Amino acid sequence: MSRARPLNIMLLSCEPARLHMAFLTATSAAATGRLVSLFFTSDAVRLLLADAWDSLPGHAGASAQELDARHAASGTADTVMLMDAVAALNVRLLACEASLAANSIQPENLTRWAGTQITTVADFLADGSGGDFLTF
Questions:
Q1: CB 26 within 8 A of CB 135
Q2: CA–CA separation, 120 vs 68, rounded Å?
Q3: What is the pLDDT of residue 53?
Q4: Averaged over 92-97, what is the pLDDT?
Q5: Cα 75 vs. chain centroid, distance in angstroms?
Q6: Segments making up each domain of the chain, as ranges
Q7: β-strand 117-119 against 92-96: which pairing, if any?
Q8: Closest CA to 93 of 76, 113, 74
Q9: Taking all residues of the chain, what is their mean pLDDT, rounded to a whole number?
Q10: pLDDT for 31-76, tens place per residue?
Q11: What is the predicted pLDDT for the residue at 135?
Q12: Model's pTM, two decimal places?
């Protein structure tokens, strides 16, 4: 196991390019042995629902489907592949309790990844103490 500091990633946005980079960063760090936590808050908690990626609209850039098609055409990992990899790489998945309530999402509907934990911002920050933090 790497002696590198843990990596704590906060996902705020449902913008496909930002999510792709967050998952690319998480899987790359986990593959090198770093402990990684993904904290889904704000609008990003919707990504914890089954098939949410497929229904994300494009924002300033490409839609989720367009982004993945571009990656597939170039032979690089698309976001769905990266999202599948987070579980295989033991990335810790955390859902913001307040954001779930604000988005009217019931915990039993968090079906994208088994083992997603519900927590608070304060606990995410405390648990990540001593690690690196990124926000997407």
A1: no
A2: 31
A3: 86
A4: 98
A5: 22
A6: 7-135
A7: parallel
A8: 113
A9: 91
A10: 999 999 999 999 999 999 988 888 877 666 678 888 888 888 999 9
A11: 97
A12: 0.89
How big is the CA angle at 29 (ends 87 and 68), to the nearest 5 degrees? 65
E-strand ranges in 43-114 read 92-96
CATH class of 7-135: alpha beta
The span from the CA of 91 to the CA of 24, in Å, is 12
Give me 35's structure tokens: 């402990």
Query: Token pair 């933090």 is at which residue?
Result: 133
What size, in residues, is the chain? 136
Tokens of 47: 């990504």
Sole residue written with tokens 């597939």: 72
- Which residues, listed in sequence order, are joined to residue 127 by a DSSP beta bridge? none
Distance CA 60, CA 70 (A): 16
